[in-house]
Amino acid sequence: MYFGLQERNVYPIDPEIYSNLYTYAHLIDISYCISEVHGIDPPFKCDLNCEKRFPNMTLVYQWYFPESVTGYIATTYDNIFNYNIAKPKKTIIISLRGTRSIFDTYADMKVDMIHYSNLGINLPSCGSGCKVHNGFYNYFATALNNINQYVVDEIDEDDYELIILGHSLGGSVALLLGLHYLDVGYDKMTLVTMGQPLTGNFDFVNWADKALGSHNGLKHDSFDRKFLRIIHKNDVITTIPRSRNPFIQYQQFKNQIYLNCSTSNARPQLSQVFDCVDGANQNCSYHIL
After folding, report:
1. Do the beta carbons of residue 169 and residue 69 sit within 8 Å?
2. Are 142 and 65 in contact (CB under 8 A)?
């Protein structure tokens, strides 16, 4: 057993990946500095030690929509994720915050689905059966329209990494953005969501897992597995939306980095963090349902 979890399909994670989880979390937390009256000050100053923790980070763009997803884009050449690289590479960060307003909460709780179709440029078609949460997709479309030109302008060299981060509702939007940019051809990408709700049906989730390499082993300094879905023990948000309608059924992703501690524990130990290969793993988030 691994500290209370059965060993089947449960694996410890690399210490470097564990360390990077805190960097991802900090970058997500910074998105909460943005509001109607406050924001991140250039080059990268905020109330969460932005400048001290990321001294060579440059703010590219930030936005606040009370009825949609809020976030920022920033870049750095610092090796903030401790990669084994000979020369600096450009890291482009998109960070999206989670539920804060009543508008977001209302969108979270709706269960209606909409047909999902991808561009089909570098990824195979998702197919006619793919469906996603209607509200999340609308937020994605708004965000993409708002930030796309900034992202395209920043990916101006071959040696880059695109980091897309999101918490709660922002996690579902980050997922859809990640799939879009992967389809466009930006394959040097890492997608990290924390407390992300369910986003689509079986066909969509199965397609997304394949596109993002969820079946691959989790390795530091690798793009083979592009998606890290971080889930806290007993976090009910990661199990909704739910519907009694048999034609509207949301599916768990196979990809889970499971924190075997409550959401009140902001600094879980390495021994409490696991890679749960299967989304239906009874040892991990599935038992919350």
Report:
1. yes
2. yes
Domain spans in the chain, listed from the N-terminal domain onward: 10-288
- CA-based end-to-end distance of the chain: 22
Domain 10-288 CATH class label: alpha beta
pLDDT beneath 70: ranges in the chain: 1-8, 99-109, 279-280, 282, 285-289
For residue 50, give the nearest of 87, 95, 104, 109 by alpha carbon: 95
Span 211-236, pLDDT tens digits: 999 989 888 999 999 999 999 888 88
For residue 243, the one-letter residue type is S
pLDDT in tens, 18-57: 999 999 999 999 999 999 999 999 999 999 999 999 999 9
